[in-house]
């Protein structure tokens, strides 16, 4: 996950572009644990502006207890996203003409084994919680 792109995306989601540090940390924690899609997306966006430095470039300002995205920050973010949308539409057009290779699902036995292991870990966790509570 690219920290600086994530900060821009979090701040732009607030109506006035300002968020206190607790809100920024919470939102970033949610995004950081949301999976590979978010990490891949932020890497693609960051690749559009390789020398991105949100503070020294004046894209984000520090204000009383939080951060606020500037107009310049909004413009840079729109630029990064516009190029991504353009590239995605080109990729979509190309994938429609070329048969995309879709990796096969893991064998059924492997998925069943992982499912059993997850159930067992949850069961052990519940048993530990019960024993700690008593």
TrEMBL record:
Biased composition regions of type Basic residues, renumbered to the chain: 112-121
Bias (Basic and acidic residues) ranges: 122-134
Top-rank lineage group of the source organism: Bacteria
Renumbered residue ranges of the record's region Disordered: 91-134
Protein name per its UniProtKB record: Uncharacterized protein
